[in-house]
Amino acid sequence: MPDPTHTLEDLSDQLGATTDSQLRSYFGGVADSVPIALGKRVATTRIVTDAPHIVGSALVFLDTATDQQKPWIAAITHDTLRLAIGATVLAHQLYQARQQALKASRDQQGEHQAVSEQVLRPAISCRGVLHGIVDKIACGAEPYDARIRTASNKSEIPLEVCASLDALIDVGRQILKDKNPGIVARRKTTSLTGAWLDNAADVSSTVRHAADRASAVRTNPEIAQPEVDLHDGWAMMLLDEIVTAFDNAHDADPSIPRLNVYSLRNVLRAPSGQKAKPPVAETPAATSGTP
Fold first, then answer.
1. What DSSP line would sit under the chain, residue for residue?
2. What pTM was computed for the model?
3. pLDDT tens digits, the chain, 291 residues: what are they?
4. CA distances (Å), 124 to each of 48, 161, 285, in order?
């Protein structure tokens, strides 16, 4: 049977739209794990490729079937075709929305990481300079020496840089208040001031905010993959109903054609022309295949 040229949009307009609630009603009583397991086996793009051929060919036949042929194809109606196309359209929309969200998330993540890297270098430099200043002024004196050693690290992880820089700033502020003659004498040989430490605190705050923004970037889109798999599975189950109905009708009346299956052939119909095994739902004893 030659395939008529149809698109998802054309068939959706011709057959009518399908809502998510209608699909849930149709598959009422079927655990979501069943279509999800089936949806995991195939890429959405493969369903989108074959659905117009399968449904379009079935629609042409239903509209032209003779009175002698119609009883053999009683398992399929225009409503079956509408649901199959509607499930495919919804699956495709969810797939595209998820892919766009994933790309936007990756782009945003990269942008924030780049911003954090730009401000990280000055913070690392500031930490190194401040460490040298307070270490010189303390000159091994307690309680500063222990605190300086605790704050001393070479980490370049943004929040760890902030933590060590903030600790050194606190030491610096204490040193500015210290009246010990030795501390005062050594402090005078440096340019350490409250303003210098305030600037260092601003650098640390900038890094911390950039790191917080980077960690707040959504790494998962609004649409979860199982939701896409669910709709893929619904579409596959409906397409399987259509293909099976025509295979059975052809066996009863050879004038009724089998439907051509291309991208989904290894799922809907085995190479020998027989149906492929039905999917197995995820259970503790059996797991589904991977896409």
1. -PPP---HHHHHHHH----HHHHHHHTTTS-THHHHHHHTTS-HHHHHHHHHHHHHHHHHHHHH--TTTGGGGTT--HHHHHHHHHHHHHHHHHHHHHHHHHHHHHHHHHHHHHHHHHHHHHHHHHHHHHHHHHHHHHTT-TTHHHHHHHH------HHHHHHHHHHHHHHHHHHHH---HHHHHHHHTS---HHHHHHHHHHHHHHHHHHHHHHHS-SS-SS-HHHHHHHHHHHHHHHHHHHHHHHHHHHH-TTSPPPP--TTHHHHS-TTSSPPPPP----SS------
2. 0.56
3. 555 678 889 999 999 999 999 999 999 999 999 999 999 989 999 999 999 999 999 999 999 999 999 999 999 999 999 999 999 999 999 998 888 877 776 666 554 555 567 778 899 999 999 999 999 999 998 899 999 988 888 888 888 899 999 999 999 999 999 999 999 999 999 999 999 999 999 999 998 888 776 665 544 456 788 999 999 999 999 999 999 999 999 999 999 999 999 888 888 864 444 444 444 444 333 333 333
4. 52, 7, 53
